[in-house]
Amino acid sequence: MLQIALDAMGADNGVEPVVCGLLQALQNKNFKAYLVGDTALLKSSLDSKRLSSDILQRIELLHADDYVRMEEKASDANKRTTTSIYHAIGLVKSGDASACVSAGHSGATMSLATLQIGRIKGVSRPAICTCMPTITNRCSIILDAGANTDCKPEYLVDFALMGFHYAKHVLHYELPRVGLLSNGEEDSKGNDLTKQTFKLLSEYDFFKGNVEGSDIFNGSVDVIVCDGFMGNLVLKASEGAASSISTILKAEIKKSIISSLGYLLAKTAFKALKKKVDYAEYGGAPLLGIKKPVIISHGKSNARAMECAIYQAIEACDSKICDKITEAFQSIATIK
Amino acid sequence: MLQIALDAMGADNGVEPVVCGLLQALQNKNFKAYLVGDTALLKSSLDSKRLSSDILQRIELLHADDYVRMEEKASDANKRTTTSIYHAIGLVKSGDASACVSAGHSGATMSLATLQIGRIKGVSRPAICTCMPTITNRCSIILDAGANTDCKPEYLVDFALMGFHYAKHVLHYELPRVGLLSNGEEDSKGNDLTKQTFKLLSEYDFFKGNVEGSDIFNGSVDVIVCDGFMGNLVLKASEGAASSISTILKAEIKKSIISSLGYLLAKTAFKALKKKVDYAEYGGAPLLGIKKPVIISHGKSNARAMECAIYQAIEACDSKICDKITEAFQSIATIK
């Protein structure tokens, strides 16, 4: 049976969303979970719920004395051997678990994943890969969404390759199209980094050229490549735009009884929109380029987001995405 | 009477939005316009409308044989002396007009503004300054919104100074707060460029530290500083997010008669939202750092956007923003 290591500590809203998300996932999928953290806390959370013996049998509590706080430095994570994320990553390293999920300190998770589990040979830098809703019936992925602030062109080429294989093997897109995030669609557009990257990517059939910020949501490509600084900016700006629109619209609706009534009648449509753009439905973000699947979840994840992040971990294992990326980089090395 | 040079050519939808926007502005404000372009086209557009003699007297048509096409290189603009934008900028250079507005090729406008009118002494690079709606009752400005793709830290400091003075003298914000666009709010966050810029900006009282993509819309600062590449990315990503939300919601509403009815009842609220986030209401984007006011409008501008861009030109003249920026950079030079 597939075994997943779940870091239960360090998320914004404590262990409850992690435990609830896990229980929901255990009901729908057949796997075993190592739940790593303060076992007293975790036991009390589990005890407060009615659980079947089948589910209880598939949870193993593992105690960790400590966890990485949000204000701590990621670079210290490897020295802090008593933390929950250190244990959870350790389970993957030893082979006891096949994948790891954490909503704790993302820098610490990245650092430990790289140092303990290790990078796939040939991958210059691991990248955070985030799923985005589009107006079409398939999502797009953007990478790097925040792991590497300053990048070289070769890193972005690696991100493109990893994104292509993720879209192909995990999302099952037949011929994934890859675009390079830039300030215009024309080939000549870009800054120093993207212009150099453009040249390197032009050798690949999957490369469809430059795309703009608005292309993230229109489905014109499947994979959008950028450095982690840009990725962070566009994701947060998009979230900000969406949340501001919602705030302004709500305030305007509240101003009149007729508008409020209209909103109630149209509520099904609003709910459908919310589900489509809700980050929770997309789970976490896989850290691509690591030898084993590691899923980084938002610190503010609710139970549904944790549940979906666990499904991502299972899909990453089932699709053997890490092996596919390893093979892809091996064959490049052979060609070179 | 204030005189504005209006480049009538090269916009996506021809001369009509320019002419209609101008006529509306002439009804509301007392100024004279030089309307530069294909006079046959412009005369026929004006003839098709009923105009009072007061308005007609305040329009002077000036013929230009040619205009810069969107696919042309900005760097060729200075050689093409028969274009409408060359004439319009020339009117400002000669002092016949006090400001220029164009919805044509923005690169050509920037290039001619810099080469013909000239940079303010001490300003390293002119920047495009764009107004953004926020959830508060005042807008925020972001610069550079696209003029300079690769920037040095000193350029960003100049953008901060120009943005501060624009917010103070044109938007009339008492003590404008300036933020640096980065991948996290903590002082330690950033890429090489923003980390170096952070140090330089720390000397200024108006500097409130790093801000994230989502801060563009929440009003936590008034001025957001970034390089033109990032500015372009976050603006287009935000536009994309907003337009996708609208597309998805419309499709969901259409699925049911009850939702459609609800939408009709709530229409006032949707209209108010649309007005608040409509780019047209914010007009164009001033090119700050040039000795005279130059307003760059979206190629797709409608009449309302052109009208608002003309108001921006008038406000730029009335507020003497170029003089204020000149004085600010003079006093820095004196301190140094």
Automatic annotation (TrEMBL), chains A, B:
It holds the Pfam family FA_synthesis. One of its GO terms (biological process) is fatty acid biosynthetic process. Keywords: Acyltransferase, Cytoplasm, Lipid biosynthesis, Lipid metabolism, Phospholipid biosynthesis, Phospholipid metabolism, Transferase. One of its GO terms (molecular function) is phosphate:acyl-[acyl carrier protein] acyltransferase activity. It is an enzyme of class 2 (transferase). It is found in: Cytoplasm. Its EC number is 2.3.1.274. Pathway: Lipid metabolism; phospholipid metabolism. One of its GO terms (cellular component) is cytoplasm. Its main location: cytoplasm. Gene3D superfamilies: Isopropylmalate Dehydrogenase. It catalyses: a fatty acyl-[ACP] + phosphate = an acyl phosphate + holo-[ACP]. Catalyzes the reversible formation of acyl-phosphate (acyl-PO(4)) from acyl-[acyl-carrier-protein] (acyl-ACP). This enzyme utilizes acyl-ACP as fatty acyl donor, but not acyl-CoA. Homodimer. Probably interacts with PlsY. Belongs to the PlsX family. This is Phosphate acyltransferase. It comes from Helicobacter trogontum.
